[in-house]
Amino acid sequence: MKKAGILGNLNGIVFIVALLVIFSLEIFGKVIERGVGHYLKWENHTRPQLGRIWERDREKIVAQKKIESILSNLSTQEQSSESIQSFKELFEKLNPSDPQMVSRKKFLQLYFEFPEQLANKMVSPYELLEIDSNRDWQRVLLTQLGEWVTISFINNQNFPIREVFLSAEGMGENPLNRDIFKGTLEEAGFGQASILTIVDFMRVMKTLDPDAQKDLFPNPYWFFSKNYYVVRVGVKEIEGSDVYPPPVRMGVEYQSDFYTEVLILPVPADISENLLSQIEIPVYDESAEDLSPFGDYQGDLN
Amino acid sequence: MNRRIFEKIAFSLFTLVMAFSLLGFGLYVDLKDDLPQLPDSLDKINLSLPTEIYSSQGNVIKVLGQRHPVTLDEISPRFTEAMIATEDSRFYSHSGVDHIGLTRAMLRNIRDMRVSQGGSTITQQLSKNLFFSFERKWVRKIKELMIALQIEATFSKDEILEAYCNQVYFGSGAYGVEDASLIYFGKRAKDLTLLQAALLAGLPNSPNNANPFNNFERAMKRTRTVLNRMISSGFISPIQMEEALETDLELAPRRIQSNPNQYFIQYVISKLEKEYGKEFVHFGGLKIFTTLDARLQKFAQQAVTTHMKSLDKRMGSNEDEEILQAAVVALENKTGAVRVLVGGRDYAQSQFNRAISNNRMAGSSFKPIVYLAAMENLGISPATVMKDEPVVLNISEDKTWEPKNFNDEYFGDLILKRALMKSLNVVSAKLVNDLTPERVIKTARQMGITSPLGENLSLALGATGVSPLEMAGAYSVISNLGVLNEPYLIDRIEDFRGNTLYEHFYFGVQRFSQKSIYPLLDMMRGVVEEGTGRVIRRMGFRHPAGGKTGTTNDYKDAWFDGFTKDLSVSVWVGYDSNNSMIDRNGRGLTGGSAAAPIWGYFMKKGLRGKNPANFPVPEGIRFVEVDSETGYIANISTKKTMKVAVKNDVVLTLPPTTDSTRGFFSFEDEPEPEQNFPTNNRPEENVLPEL
User: Fold this and answer.
1) Which of A28, A284, B4, B604 is the most buried (most CB within 10 A)?
2) Tell me: the pLDDT tens digits for B410-440?
3) Catalytic residue IDs of B
4) What pTM value is reported for the model?
């Protein structure tokens, strides 16, 4: 009985002592706070990112994402404009809601590396020299408003040094409409009947006066400089045109070591009639088609 | 007996411990989902790069989200000591909760029967600043406490103190001790004296009440309290306190709250927020290069302040009465760049931006648009004769309108140029009646007016809401000889690495042919030289300029819109409440008396030292001296002559009785036509038929 009483007191004493120990540890060692603190630290990663500090973090992330998105768009635009291969492609991309921008270098590349005399059609090379003389021509901005296309040569302040206006309606007949077609003349829509070998075409060329020759055919240096071998030339009238005489396109088919392409360019109106009359290729009617020495086979012509 | 008492005590303690344990556990279970995660670093909140806004001169005019975090080494030890003594004297010995402080606060609160003392430690306050709202809820207090414990378990005492010093609000817009030191004393936090450190340490507790800028005495009282606590905590001796109190506080002059560029800046920010989102603007670390000319802006603000003070005197306004407001916008004609935008007298007093608000009637300043539409569509010229007389116009089958001139004064026959110079309402109303309001609206749209315009005859008198920004844009089309450059405020935006995110491209559109616009430009020069805007000349402004005054019904709005070759400036004056502006003598304020002087003062200062630039005369324009009443070509017997600019194809005749071989004035000395505008080779065909 006595033993039970001692044991009963002992339990209470142990409990009190334990409490006192814990109390002392708390007072002098802050065990409870530390315990709770470390537990919360341990399970920190499981909790949501709430509160002002995280809100700020999210806002920073949103801002950075927006910046990245803008930069990515700008980069895409720049790559797109740098990959343009001809003025025609550039003008095709242009619409009132989508101005086009090319660097000075790209513009000059399109201007000089592409075969055809542009001088009096858009801006003369002498004007370009003048525009460039102050060393602040940076880029070219093309904008379309209504029927007008504005070509702005802009400086590093984005201010136009010179503006050139072109009628969008007239663009169809503009020499800027030159293009390169990957494939053969036939694939580019030139009829068999109006295709000549380069040798035959040169015979026709020789009948034209030197100015007309220059206006008609691109500068040969372009083909030499790129190791292109001109093989055939085709001529065709643009179908469905409501102007008379209908505009004429000339296709110069050339081959590189790896591919065949056709340089398509408009024929000046004053030469087109003469040129067409000079070519005089007999047009076979369909029933007589098998009389053609070539039949359906056209590949060898290349 | 003893045993029973002992058992009871043990049981009570056990129950108490269990109750606390269960309560703590229950609270944790209940709140754990709402407890925020702690970041790896307490600096995280300071890491965002500030967005800087620049003027066109390349100077920073505003920084958004700027913080100046510093390390403990860069903070005066006196300040940290003062902070610890004031906010949490046992900071270095507790683990997030100060038992003694908490007990004392609890007893005090029980005694006061209200929450009069918080007992929060620095760690708890930091926890609150970083994660929680400032509402006083016990749930928030418990969460704050738990996070404080975690902060203590995660970071060192110095890291906690440093973060606290960089987070806490010191009033006057200062977050962090470095900002506070710069604002209150114009020095770095490491250079604070004992007195300055004590003053700053007293601020977080009551940043507004103990603010030395607002109440110096209270601030010093609080400083003494802080110094006493520093003594109690053993950081300083009483002698040091006395010495500190004898030193000069060296309080810096209060920063002028009202930044003269604030209306412009806020408009830029709001436009960008709308376009890209708030986060982009405030947390993007951007460099925003604007078109603002801080020098011109300063002059415009000065012009507004100076003239409005004189108008206040004229109106006899008391301090508690509504004050007159004003707005000014100046555009660079060549580019459309907004160089000045003043949206009111003082941004600190009123943030409403009147320069972009289109809720005020344009009055007669709208008439040039009517005249241009008339010359474009009715085949009339500045020399065309109109009859200025009382008239009744039919609005509909059963409704009529009788427009009246200012002061009910009518002039009979007179040419169009003179009618505009005198701002005759009847003539303008007749023109709109002949034109139809639709045609006027079309012309207004071509000039860049975008506000809704009512299709009614009262357009003749400018009874339509427009903004000063729109009016400046429309007038710049006149000065630009028909070229509209969209007004813009942002030149370029870069990210912190210098990548261009946005850039503005100038793109002028020839909305009217040069020779169609020039006659109107010449008429508006007449307004400044001899018409309702001649106050500009009386003020001594000598540059070639054109303009038009505008006063709406009952003197509710006063306008003066005008231009030189380089700048187009619109000025509006009025009450926000749309009350009439009647001075103490019963006279109304007009565009000429209320708005034009601001224009004149601003332009005189802004263009000081610059050579006057003439307006180029386009090809196809000739100048003719005509009889201002009959429109006939003037001869030596003509009494009232006036020189007008007309297109070459306008046929002007001699008076019926004039001998055509004599009496002509020669105008061969007129300047040769020149075309040196931004788009000098712009074809006239580029004129857009419609917007």
Assistant:
1) B604
2) 999 999 999 999 999 999 999 999 999 999 9
3) 87, 364
4) 0.76
